[in-house]
Amino acid sequence: MTSQTSSAKTALERTHTMIIRALACLRGAQFALWIWVPFADGGPTRFPPQVLVGYVLAALFSAALFTVATKHGTLTAPWVSADVALAMVYAIVVSRSYPPVDAASITNWVIPPLCGVTVTAAIYGGRYRIPAVVLVVGAWVAGAWPALGTENSPELMSNSVMMTLFAGVAGITGKLLFDAARRADRAAEEAVAARAQKVKALERERHISHLHNTVLQTLEGIAQGTRGGNDLAEIRLLCRTEAESQRTNLLAARPDGVVPVLTQALADMVAGHPAQRNHQVITKYDDRLPDLPSEVVEALTGAAREALNNVIKYAQTDEARLTAALLDPGGVRLTILDHGVGFDGDTVVPGFGTRRSILDPITAVGGKAFIEGTPGEGTIVELSWTR
After folding, report:
1. DSSP H or E run through 323
2. Three-state DSSP class for 384?
3. 20 to 30 Å CA-CA from 94: which of 20, 60, 308, 332?
4. What is the CA radius of gyration of the chain?
5. pTM, full prediction
């Protein structure tokens, strides 16, 4: 199943649904045509019991048939076979229960539903559609045969022709609709595949361009002595910066090849941060991060920058971790963690710089900021924002 069909119905599925609903309405109308008959000219007692019992059973089965078909989105061979078999039974039993003169008249309720059965079989009967239609029409002729020679004998033949023609038209129409739906689905799959190929090609081109403009240029500069010179610390900083950039592109890109704005902003901030000179900043960005308002990105990035500044000033460690994770609904959580000297949160009150650069900016955009320190174990700064 393609990405298009995993979240929405395919054209073929929608066509099945449409046809099943149409057949259900048709069958219901066909049974409804006879409802008034038992209450006219003497009432229900003028009919043999098998006429009324057969009508109720056939109507109930049709209701069950289309309820199941609507639930599953199609009509399966066992249900179609049962529909045909039951139709053959009531076509013969009920028709023979009428007086010969009425067997082929409109007072015989089986005529409209039999037409509906042949239409259903012609569409969903598969390779057995023609034998199924022949069996139903044959059962109708066998059941109403006593009408031959009466004043209603023409109805016997005309109803037979009607059932056959309706079945033929329905079978052809159903095939045309299903074929068109399959072509539409194939075209949609090809379009999705082509779009995926285009995105893949653009992403490959973007990666090549990024590699050329960043890490390859840096490596060539180091090799030629034009960047870093003999300063090992400068060379380490260059390598660490490029590693951060590549990690962002490899791990933070969404399936569509786009790096979220916050991820890019954090990567740029970390790459140019003084912490990169003497510290190892380990980053991890969730590839599901949403697009955020610019003021939120700015506040989160600025607060994260100040948290790294504090690592340099107070943590007495050479490593810090920065993670960005998805926070439903449509939010994000940044965590800056170090395992330095920490502090006692019960006695140390956040200073003016921390409040101004971390707590206040996050609160101003509707987010939350949390700072916790444990003496000897480190400090965690957690910044969160949700829509």
Report:
1. strand 319-327
2. strand
3. 20
4. 38
5. 0.58
